[in-house]
Design a protein that fits this description.
A: alpha+beta; 8 strands; 29% strand; B: 184 residues; mainly alpha; 8 helices; 76% helix; 0% strand; globular
Chain lengths: 196, 184
């Protein structure tokens, strides 16, 4: 290893005076600054790749998935579930906090036992103070991670104080918040609660 | 000259496209400025983790605020430098360390104004380097900051010595034009 090579060593000695002046100025600039970063960490690139990509909460695909999930839930609760389940044994309860878009709303999530065979958590959600939506509009309870949509738990509409049963198969420790919003793009978060 | 001007315009255009939510433009901008941003953050903050945080925040801020960029108010590089500088200052303040202005490096010879100028100069040089073709950038970085001689660089890259000299000369010529553009 040696010092930075001499200017003439770098560029040769067959330059015109104008070229020499121009290149010498750059040579001097380069010698005056520290070297560049070795490499940009791959983890930084991964983090930056996520910027701006997860903003739309409800893409068409997600809405379809949520509707499919709601249909499956309905079949579960109205078809099979009622046959053997008349009560709800809550092992944890969390109060949801209203956001600025629904200051008068309240919500409570009760978490039942996790089915040891399927891994599904049983959830009972009670909300109050949200307006009835009707038509093709509905609310959704979902989980967030790093401020973005990460998984749906079920959809519902309300009429006054409403209690609905849902299920989720997620490992809840992987998520940050329970969130209730309308199921549409960029809908404000109406009610939230930390998952732990 | 026209090539450099086109490149300088391209930076501005990229930011304008990012302002319209263009993801591809954002990725191009990242590829072009990731190294200078990360290098500056690393020099000022001193560890990889915090430098990564600051660099991520820089690009998040670019994504959020590209709409506010006005080409007539200054170069794209200067705008990005300002965004990065703010992100680095914020990161430094969060840790209650290095609370002073960001271009502070441990250098007893220079005052704050001189150090700020050094930081801007370093940014300009490294941003311009990113615009060089890879083969020219590599020989210049090896020549100026690795301590290798031209012969050693030729051996390392497995190319003839004459090729190293040609690439160095062409790269320096290109840098001269690019840095002239940045200065205006």
């Amino acid at each position: 290893m040696s010092e930075t090579p001499d200017f003439r060593d770098l560029v040769g000695d067959d330059l015109t005076p104008e070229e020499e002046l121009e290149l010498a100025r750059v040579d001097s600039l380069l010698r005056s600054v520290p070297g560049p970063a070795t490499e940009v960490p791959g983890s930084l690139t991964q983090r930056v790749e996520r910027i701006g990509t997860a903003t739309p909460l409800w893409t068409r695909r997600r809405v379809v998935l949520a509707v499919a999930l709601a249909a499956a839930l309905a079949a579960l609760f109205f078809g099979v579930g009622r046959g053997f389940d008349q009560g709800f044994d809550a092992r944890a309860s969390v109060q949801m906090a209203p956001g600025t878009s629904a200051p008068g709303a309240s919500g409570r999530i009760q978490l039942g036992n996790r089915d040891p065979e399927t891994g599904n958590w049983r959830i009972q959600l009670t909300v109050d103070g949200l307006p009835h939506l009707g038509g093709n509009n509905y609310y959704v309870l979902w989980l967030s991670k790093d401020g973005h949509y990460a998984g749906a738990c079920g959809t519902f509409d309300v009429s006054g104080r409403t209690t609905v049963d849902m299920t989720a198969s997620y490992d809840l420790s992987e998520y940050d918040y329970w969130v209730i919003s309308e199921a549409k793009d960029n809908a404000p978060w109406l009610l939230t609660a930390e998952t732990s | 000259m026209p090539a450099a001007m086109a490149t300088a315009e391209s930076d501005s255009r990229l930011i304008e496209r990012v302002g319209r939510g263009d993801r591809e433009a954002f990725e191009q901008l990242y590829r072009r400025f990731a190294r200078p941003v990360f290098a500056m953050a690393l020099r000022q903050l001193g560890d990889n983790g915090r430098a990564e945080d600051a660099a991520q925040e820089t690009f998040a801020a670019v994504w959020r605020s590209a709409k506010s960029y006005k080409a007539e108010r200054g170069t794209a590089s200067a705008w990005l430098y300002a965004v990065a500088r703010h992100a680095i200052i914020d990161r430094a303040r969060q840790k209650r360390e290095n609370v002073a202005e960001v271009p502070d490096e441990a250098d007893s010879r220079a005052g704050p104004a001189e150090r700020a100028e050094e930081s801007w100069l370093t940014w300009r040089v490294h941003s311009a380097l990113e615009l060089l073709p890879e083969r020219e950038r590599v020989v210049i970085e090896l020549a100026y900051w690795s301590g290798l001689s031209q012969t050693e660089i030729a051996s390392y890259l497995d190319v003839p010595l004459g090729t190293v000299k040609t690439r160095t000369r062409t790269g320096l010529g290109r840098l001269s034009t690019l840095l002239e553009e940045v200065r205006t």
